[in-house]
Amino acid sequence: MNKFKILYQVIQSLVFAAVPLLTTISSQKLFGDDFTIGLNIIILIVAYVISAVLIFLVNKYLSRLKCFRLYKNYEGRWIEIIPGFEREISVCSLSYKNGEYHFNGENYASNNAKNVRFTSKKFIDNGETEFFYITEGSQSHRPEGYGKIHFISNKDEGYYKAYGYFFDVSAKDEQKQHKTIMIKFEKSFYDKYLNIPHGKDPEKFSDREIYEYSKEYIEKTYCSLEDALK
Q1: Which of 3, 32, 56, 151 lies at a C-alpha separation of 20 to 30 Å from 194?
Q2: Please, which pLDDT band fits residue 38 given cuts at 50, 70 and 90?
Q3: Rg from Cα positions in the chain
Q4: Interatomic CA distance for residues 12 and 53, integer angstroms
């Protein structure tokens, strides 16, 4: 279990236990001999209500801090590779806004096809290393795809990678499963593999710039791997 998640649970437990205890001790000192059993019950009820309110506030605000978030290590922009697909390279973003995660991006076309933007209509977490998502297109505003992302460690190659799949349910042809490879666009990746001119700050790149700078490497390294993903 994530150490921050454990800390978060400890804070919840302390709040729920400490408020009634401290309230009772304070009340005994305040009321002295007038501290009756009936008064004690009322004070305990009020204390537990206060505890519940505090825990609600902890859940609502403390859980939004990045150190407590489920996918904190994976937040940021990703290059998604879809070997054999009409638009083989996408630039995606996993972000946390308004108390929930969002997954969106743009599929870039290398031929005459149009680029396609997508955003998660529904985000479903499934533990600390994977999630599901349902997307909607920017034009139709209706569900157009369903997919899953599974993260792996960054220890082997030095940068985070992920694997997954999606179904394009809006496709006119027979729907099929498209397997994907994802690379997090982070310093340990672009410094080693991408030819970025000195003085450029990749962290400030637009999604389009990430696509342009990574296109050659991705096509050479990954886009011929369709058979390997079957």
Answers
A1: 151
A2: low
A3: 25
A4: 11
Q: How far apart are CA 175 and CA 168, in angstroms?
A: 6
Asked if residue 185 lies in contact with residue 79, where contact means CB atoms within 8 angstroms, the answer is yes
Identify whether the C-beta of residue 50 lies closer than 8 Å to the C-beta of residue 19: yes
Three-class DSSP category at 65: coil
CA pair distance 72, 126, nearest whole angstrom: 14
Q: Give the model confidence (pLDDT) of 81-134 as tens digits.
A: 998 887 889 999 999 988 889 999 998 987 666 788 888 989 999 988 999 999
Core vs surface per residue 197-221: b (16+ CB within 10 A) or e: eeeeebeebebeebbebbbebbeee
Residue 48 to residue 131: CA distance in whole angstroms: 35
226 — pLDDT class (breaks 50, 70, 90) = low
pTM: predicted TM-score of the whole model, two decimal places: 0.71
CB 204 within 8 A of CB 101: no
pLDDT at 221: 87
How many angstroms separate the Cα of 227 from the Cα of each of 65, 82, 109, 117, 223?
A: 41, 12, 21, 26, 10
